[in-house]
Amino acid sequence: MLKQFVPNEICLKCDACCRFVQQNSRYAPVLLSDSFSDSTCRLSLKPHKDIFICQNFSPESNSCNIYAHRPLDCQLYPFMVTYNKEYENIVLVLDAKCPYAKVITGHPEFNYTSLPHSFVMPYQPDTIKITTIKNLGGFKALALEHKPLFNKYLNNSEYSARSFVNIYIWSDLFNILWKIIDNNLCVFYEYKNEFNMLISSPKGMHLLKPGGRIENIAEKEIKAFEGAGIKIHKNTDEYIYLAKDIAELKGNRFSSQRAAKNNFIKNNKFIYRPFVISDIDECLNLYSSWAKRKMGTHDSVYHQLIADSFSAHKKAMLDYEELGLTGRVVDIDEKIRAYTFAFEMNTDTYCVVFETADTTIKGLSQFIFSHLAQDIAKEAKYINTMDDSGLANLKKAKLSWHPHRTLTSYIGTV
């Protein structure tokens, strides 16, 4: 355990540490062991008055109940490991908000280069740089401020997987890096012992090891990749619907969805409304409840997808305004029973990035999808609901909504 830098008498007077505005704050302490509370490895927070506090913090004594075994970032504070402003280096900084920051001059000795990417925080402007820990070798770590640049390269793509939103929301789970190579945006991800590409051109292939994958290849790009010696395999289909079809649910094709939606409207008192930031905790609690029910069925791949998706839902909600997401929730008895988010991919298409509904309430899922489509139909012609992750049950569900067309993506291997 690292030695405490701030004198105890100052710590005991502090009213900032261990306290958070949101229950699912991205600044909650990170556990680096095998035991963690969710897929982002962050400690759980509990309500206290009008804020949230660490599960191990005692507000009465202003002390930590696991002080001798507290997480590394707690031991380091007021030092933090963050990216620099350009997201090209990992740096050690001093939090200027700490009352003792002005008198601290030393810094801890630790092998920071071995830390997982989830431990590294976004750039913090109100900090004092101590030293550079690791250079990213010409890559940049993905950050929210990179959205305009990504949109410049990706806005003409038909594929939902090739959008900033659908890449960024996974950046807590995967270490996502990018660079421009010969005026081509190349996006890479590290996960466990793998280093693959999410978006590429043949210009970026030399950065992959033998066996490395290039994902999200469009059909029109196959010839160029095959010409560079890449083996191409069919991946999955994305499902594209006419927004008007889903909004209106007319005709025999949509009789079952229409009946389910009408049954929900008839038998429930509900409010359909826009998502607001204060809904985050309740939405994530709904996702956790939904996930527990789903874990009792399907295979291990589906279970892993459910577990991994928690961090994506959380990140999307935390940054929904900056990402330009359209969020909708359904309240029943003053509790959120369903939520959905979508974003504008291009001038004629919106992507539904996720939807979660209480499966015990008949017709709720059909209702929220159709009502969201009514909102989207005012702005765009098509709705892309992404792919089926190779899962037969998800494919069946997407086909039951009668897509206007499907869009096949491919994977290349070096």
TrEMBL record:
| Alphabetized Pfam families for the sequence | CxxCxxCC, LPG_synthase_C
> Which InterPro entries does the annotation name?
Acyl_CoA_acyltransferase, LPG_synthase_C, Puta_zinc/iron-chelating_dom, UCP018688
Origin species, per record, is Candidatus Taenaricola geysiri
Boundaries of every Phosphatidylglycerol lysyltransferase C-terminal domain copy: 217-410
Q: What name does the UniProt record give this protein?
A: Phosphatidylglycerol lysyltransferase C-terminal domain-containing protein
Superkingdom of the source species: Bacteria
